[in-house]
Amino acid sequence: MSSNETLEELRRQIDAIDDRVHDLLIERSGMIEQIVAAKRDGQAKLRPGREALIARRLVGRHRGRFPQASLIRIWREIINAFTCMQGPFEIAVPEPAVDTPVWEATRDYFGGTPTRRPVPSAGAALAAVANGEATLAMLPWGAGASAWVGELLRLGDPGLRVCYGLPFVRGIGEATIAVAIGRVAAEPTGSDRGVVAIEAPGKQPVEAVLAAADLDPVALWPGEGASAGWWLAEIAGAVETGDPRLERAAVEAGAGRVAALGTYAEPIVLGRASEGPTR
Fold it and tell me: How big, in percent rounded to 5, are the helix, strand and coil portions of the chain?
């Protein structure tokens, strides 16, 4: 067989693989339609914890030269499209929205199928989720970017919680730059980051409160703007309302308040020997 004939045969095999992949997508789509018919609520169902576990499993079983980041991005597009089949899926992003790191992180993880809607402010994004006009509010995260936490606390809506931290797939040393707030049930994965707000006058009292409550901070920074007077902490492991450690923290904080803001799955960090989720 000549080299040209070999190439043609390989191309035919690739075409056959493409057809099999497409057939599986069609089959999966039919199963989603059955789920939609059985649920009858017309609501998109988000499962951040399950999504993270599946992504970690795929990275763990992957082999060959096909990039892991591309693998997860393709899988995310598939998952997001099927989620949108179940019902409306809209993400509110505060202005300036387009071409910002938050906008790009949202697009990279949630793909092109869900609607991304620019809104005037972080408060407007939170209100859109609280009122059922949007599924998620995607907001900036980290020191100097978390003034909106004060608005979330003032809403006093226990159903609104941090449920995603982005980018989920990242390089060594990359930090979380955005979190999603939504009415999404807590779903710990066994490798997570809890988000806690503590009312205190300074860093040293906060560190003492966290240590006394056995809460291990991964990151800690002061709130600003509407969040002034609060300290924000990312905790190793899931932390949710009702966690007994929060009660101990509240006792240690004295008159200060302690609030669990939610939990998101630890990211997958590529480029390390383990190629797995961070700890």
Answer: 45, 25, 35
